UniProtKB/TrEMBL annotation, chain A:
InterPro entries: Band7/mec-2_domain, Band_7, Band_7/SPFH_dom_sf, Band_7/stomatin-like_CS, Stomatin_HflK_fam. Coiled coil: none annotated. Belongs to the band 7/mec-2 family. This is Paraslipin. The keyword Cell wall biogenesis/degradation does not apply.
Automatic annotation (TrEMBL), chain B:
The chain crosses the membrane at residues 15-39, 45-72. It comes from Deinococcus aerophilus. Coiled coil: none annotated. InterPro entries: Membrane_assoc_protease, NA-bd_OB-fold, NfeD-like_C. This is Membrane protein. SUPFAM superfamilies: NfeD domain-like (SSF141322). Keywords: Membrane, Transmembrane, Transmembrane helix. It is found in: Membrane. Residues 95-148 form the NfeD-like C-terminal domain. The keyword Membrane applies. It is a multi-pass membrane protein.
Length: 306, 155
């Protein structure tokens, strides 16, 4: 019976020992094996046997790429703007031993390193550069943090600045600046339009004036020509009359004039206004005219006598 | 109550039932541990079925068989895992980059510089190389890549 109890305990011992010695590591992890507390090796995923009682599992290290959220923090830029920044860090443990034993709290260490470096990088830049140069910020952060975490067997694959929040009043001024910029452009365009329009109008008026003047000049030319023509015709007519006179007798003209004179007198006499009778005042002129008539008569009859 | 196992009478059936229970436990709590015990229990059931042994001897045999099962199983599983190489593609760290051609972003001087892999930069060690040169990754040690110059390629 005693032997039986011993045997039962033996079986239990074997079971417990096996339980301690058989280790199956899941994919995506590496477990460190410590012999008497000293690091021995890393157990790869799959079935592993360790020696119970002298070996034990130290750390269970996640070998997958992990994401760390960098909490919001306030940073003062070089031009004294107080901004709120947060971000993400992607990192992967490549050396489970270093990650376990070279650093005490890997996640916290990485996080603090990133946060301080975000301050360093952003504190050395102006706000405008910050908002427009995220790529270079990420690159600088990555270079620094990756270099610093290298002794811990960690590869930082990516650091991204997520959100850069300037204070609300600054955002408002940015909006105002934007609006003013747009309005300035609109005003300039307006003025440009007015200027163009005025120029075009003036051009049109100038053209109209020129055309007007052209027209007047043309008309004057034509008028002068017409007057010239008229004068020429008159001269011609005069010439013809004088030629006719030269060819004939001067008394013929006198006869014509006298006839007209008498006709005129008759017209005056028979005018509806009976109260006026215009007669030549100068007797001499009447006499003259009579003499003219006499001479005409003399010419006419005397010619027959002589 | 004569079907229950006691300290002076254990039947093969008892071992088989124990094996089945252990297998179920393995499914409920995977850890590749109970499966060996189940294996041992089944084997012992067979042995007892062929030649009935005293209870203490059976228990002792069970303990021995458990140890044997683990070592045999380890071997067998090792062969199983060699058969399926798919797991080797995962979490191999920097080893997965071996064979890729990359560009040096910070000149390698005194055996230390940086190269651009994908959208990230890695520390690299190798012969002195100017910035912009193309190099071939030939090995990886932790987070540092070992690179070799590709002769005559200047970007």
């Amino acid at each position: 019976m005693g032997a039986l109890i011993v045997i039962v305990f033996l079986v239990l011992l074997v079971l417990v020992t096996l339980l301690a010695g058989v280790k199956s590591v899941p994919q995506g992890y590496e477990w460190t094996q410590e012999r008497f507390g000293k690091y021995q090796r890393s157990l790869r995923p799959g079935l592993n046997l360790i020696i119970p009682y002298i070996d034990r599992i130290g750390r269970r290290v996640n070998m997958m790429e992990q994401v760390l959220d960098v909490p919001s923090q306030e940073v003062i830029t070089r031009d004294n703007a107080l901004i709120t920044v947060d971000g993400v860090v992607f990192y992967q443990v490549l050396d489970s031993a270093k990650a376990s034993y070279e650093v005490r709290n890997l996640e916290q260490a990485t996080l603090n390193l990133t946060m301080t470096n975000i301050r360093t990088v952003m504190g050395s830049m102006d706000l405008d550069d910050l908002l427009s140069n995220r790529d270079s910020i990420n690159a600088r952060l990555l270079a620094v943090v990756d270099e610093a975490t290298e002794p811990w067997g960690v590869k930082v694959t990516r650091i991204e600045v997520k959100d850069i929040k300037p204070p609300a009043d600054l955002v408002a001024s940015m909006g105002r600046q934007m609006k003013a910029e747009r309005e300035k452009r609109a005003n300039i365009l307006d003025a440009e339009g007015f200027r163009q329009a005025a120029i075009l109008k003036a051009e049109g008026e100038k053209q109209a004036e020129i055309l007007n003047a052209e027209g007047r000049r043309q008309a004057a030319f034509l008028e002068a020509e017409a007057r010239e023509r008229e004068a020429a015709a008159e001269a011609e007519a005069t010439r013809l009359v004088s030629e006719a006179i030269a060819g004939g007798n001067a008394q013929a003209i006198n006869y014509f004039i006298a006839q007209r004179y008498v006709d005129a007198l008759r017209d005056v006499a028979t005018a509806p206004n009976q109260k006026t009778l215009i007669l030549p005042i100068e007797a001499t002129s009447i006499l003259g005219s009579l003499q003219g008539i006499a001479e005409v008569a003399k010419e006419a009859f005397g010619g027959r006598k002589g | 109550m004569d079907w229950l196992p006691s300290l002076d009478r254990i039947l093969p059936g008892h071992w088989w039932v124990l094996g089945a229970v252990l297998l179920m436990l393995e499914l409920a709590a995977p850890g590749i541990f109970f499966v060996w015990l189940a294996l041992a229990a089944f084997t012992l059931g067979l042995i007892v079925f062929v030649l009935p042994l005293a209870v203490p001897l059976q228990l002792f045999l069970f303990a021995v068989l458990c140890i044997v099962a683990v070592f045999v199983g380890k071997r067998y599983v090792g062969r199983l895992m060699l058969g399926g190489q798919d797991g080797e593609r995962l979490n191999t760290g920097a080893g997965r980059l071996v064979g890729r051609t990359v560009v040096v972003t910070a000149a390698i001087r005194n055996g230390s510089g940086r190269v651009r892999v994908g959208d990230s930069e890695w520390r690299a060690t190798g012969p002195d190389t100017p910035e912009g040169a193309q190099v071939l990754i030939v090995g990886a040690e932790g987070t540092t890549l070992t690179v070799r110059e590709i002769s005559g390629t200047w970007v």
